[in-house]
TrEMBL record:
InterPro entries to which the protein is assigned, alphabetical: Amidase_dom, AS_sf, TPR-like_helical_dom_sf, TPR_rpt
Stretches assigned to the Amidase domain: 70-454
Protein's UniProt name: Outer envelope protein 64, mitochondrial
Pfam families: Amidase (PF01425), TPR_1 (PF00515)
The gene coding this protein: LOC107908956
Transmembrane segments: 15-32
Domain of life where this protein originates: Eukaryota
TPR repeat locations: 487-520, 521-554, 555-588
Length: 603
């Protein structure tokens, strides 16, 4: 430093030296200040898990004087997604170009005011996926909120910051919006409760639209009693209602999409209701076959097969209709702004927006017809006391910065389309963990039965968590081995039943053969074929896994597992199976055609 000073003294008369010195000092100050701000930002981000866009306080309305009862949400704090208007603040919609090109709001959203009037305090706005597109929770501009339970994985979106704020215990509850899963997915990934009400049940005045026929105001909570209290306020429900009986309806075919063992989902719920009064024996349905028969307009959206009764084709068609409806209405709402501003968008969102803006929509009336028929079908299935039980989402949270594949998106949307396209209310309920990832199931009931559903969660929650604890400590039963000759006879009986298209009887015979001899790959392979005919794809995949573990060169097992995985929308895994079959049998036509089709899908 002394050498530098001496140099300046020696050349003090030279103005260029002073300019250089000034620039150097200014540069040092700027670098130091930048580092200080980054460090401060990192500290803040660590403190709030990157959940918040903006911190502020909206003070609740004053408590009425005695003898009036205390306000129902008194003492609770909440956060709101950056899609709700707050007077004096610009609503950002998850994108800086949107915020830059819009004025500050002159009114606060109706739903936020309702919460303030009932005693809750708002503490800020949370990060969201840009323009409410996306279900991963990643945001190129503001960063991705950290999933408190799985920091290396996405939190789910688009209401990512709101879910993280609740899961990290920064607030008691938070508001989000749900179009095609934007509350349900982050609730599942963050291991908390998430409620999507019946479409139109909560006011959207002062909320930016993505797709108004699908948008619903939703909320998150850790505690079912808080979820219930918030629901009573937002839905303006009566405090007391006569208790009704309930019956759960398990969508067995949809649980095949989930890789979580049924012991940790279906079994847990079944055991939980056994101990509760007012619950009828659970029913089991093939949900896809039901909607294929009761939503005739879906035929116009079936992509890969004209037979809607085939596997989950009906659900894929419903998902296709949902995505088309979202994109059509998004284009109607925001095309002009997008073309005028040309905003900077993250790659995933950019693809969605590009598809929405550049598509032509020829089946618009059919989209709304599917929605009407789907709502009527759900009412028919559930009557006035039914609760449909489905997985919230098929796959665990993705790793950060990996991007979502077509497979992940298709499997997610298949399940999420049920409530979005019917307008029914749905609640995502955490059920512990599997392989270190959160598990959740969803309860869905008919449009307008929001109080019934909230009451159901409140009623079941403690019993569910007790069963979760028990299931996590239990182990599956081992296979049994037995007499070889008897098992061969049972296999032949199974083959005869299969040829006679008596699929259930064939499964029973093969199962008995496996009990006697659990080391024969053919028994598992044959049972897998019968399961495929019944549309039980997960069971077929499991049998093929066993067959391949016993016989690595079993071509039929690879073909059948590939078929099962393809039907479960696991395209990459199915592709590998058909490739393996071609290695073992290069001229196999079935494998060759399937491999070509799946390669296009995956790419």
């Amino acid at each position: 430093m002394s050498k530098t000073l001496n140099l300046i003294k020696t050349n003090a008369s030279n103005p260029k030296v002073w300019i250089v010195a000034g620039i150097t000092v200014a540069g040092i100050i700027v670098v130091a200040e930048t580092r200080r701000r980054r460090k401060k930002a990192m500290i803040i981000k660590r403190e709030d898990f990157g959940a918040f866009m903006e911190r502020f306080e909206l003070i609740p309305f004053p408590q009425p004087p005695p003898p009036a009862a205390e306000l129902p949400l008194s003492g609770l704090t909440f956060a709101i997604k950056d899609i709700f208007d707050v007077k004096g603040h610009a609503t950002g919609f998850g994108n800086p170009d949107w915020q830059r090109t819009h004025e500050v709001a002159d009114k606060t959203a109706v739903v936020v005011t309702a919460l303030l009037k009932n005693g809750a305090k708002c503490v800020g706005k949370t990060v969201m996926d840009e323009l409410a597109f996306g279900i991963t929770g990643e945001n190129k501009h503001y960063g991705t909120p950290t999933n408190p339970n799985m920091p290396s994985n996405v939190p789910g979106g688009s209401s990512s910051g709101s879910a993280v704020a609740v899961a990290a215990e920064l607030v008691d509850f938070a508001l989000g919006t749900d179009t095609i899963g934007c509350v349900r997915v982050p609730a599942s990934f963050c291991g908390i409760l998430g409620f999507r009400p019946s479409h139109g049940a909560v006011s959207t005045i002062g909320v930016l639209p993505n797709s108004q026929s699908l948008d619903a105001i939703g909320w998150f909570a850790r505690d079912p009693s808080i979820l219930h209290r918030v629901g009573n306020v937002l839905l303006q429900l009566k405090a007391v209602e006569p208790r009704r009986g309930r019956h759960l309806v398990f969508a067995d075919d949809l649980f095949q999409l989930s890789k979580v063992p049924k012991q940790k989902t279906v079994h847990v719920i079944s055991k939980a209701v056994e101990k509760l009064s007012g619950y009828q024996l659970p029913k089991h349905v093939n949900f896809c076959q039901f909607i294929a028969s009761n939503v005739p307009s879906l035929k116009g959206f079936c992509q890969h097969s004209t037979n809607l009764q085939n596997g989950i084709s009906a659900l894929q068609a419903l998902s296709s209709a949902m995505v088309s409806l979202q994109r059509y209405e998004f284009k109607t709402n925001h095309e002009e702004w997008l073309k005028d501003v040309k905003p900077r968008l993250g790659p995933e969102v950019s693809r969605c927006v590009f598809a929405a803006i550049n598509n032509t929509y020829e089946k618009v009336k059919s989209l709304y017809k599917v929605r009407t028929e789907m709502r009527a079908a759900m009412q028919s299935l559930l009557k006035d006391d039914g609760v449909l039980v489905i997985p919230t989402i098929a796959d665990p949270p993705l790793k950060l910065k990996k991007g979502s594949s077509t497979e992940f998106h298709d499997r997610a949307c298949a399940l999420l389309s049920v409530a979005s396209m019917s307008g029914c209310c749905q609640v995502s309920v955490p059920l512990g963990e599997h392989d270190g990832c959160p598990i959740s199931v969803s309860f869905v009931t008919y449009h307008g039965a929001d109080k019934f559903l909230l009451d159901t969660v409140l009623d079941m929650y403690a019993s569910l968590q007790e069963q979760v604890s028990m299931a996590s400590n239990s182990a599956p039963l081992p296979d049994l081995n037995g007499n070889m000759d008897a098992s061969e006879l049972l296999k032949e009986k199974g083959n005869a039943a299969f040829k006679g298209k008596q699929w259930n009887k064939a499964v029973n015979y093969y199962t008995e053969a496996i009990k006697l001899n659990g080391t024969n790959a053919t028994y598992y392979n044959n049972r897998a074929a019968a399961y495929l005919e019944l549309g039980c794809f997960q069971q077929a995949e499991e049998d093929c896994n066993k067959a391949i573990s016993l016989d690595k060169k079993n071509v039929k097992a690879y073909l059948r597992r590939g078929t099962a995985r393809d039907s479960l929308l696991c395209y990459k895994e199915a592709l590998e199976d058909f490739k393996h079959a071609l290695v073992l049998e290069p001229q196999n036509k079935v494998a060759n055609l399937a491999e070509k089709r799946l390669r296009k899908l995956v790419s």
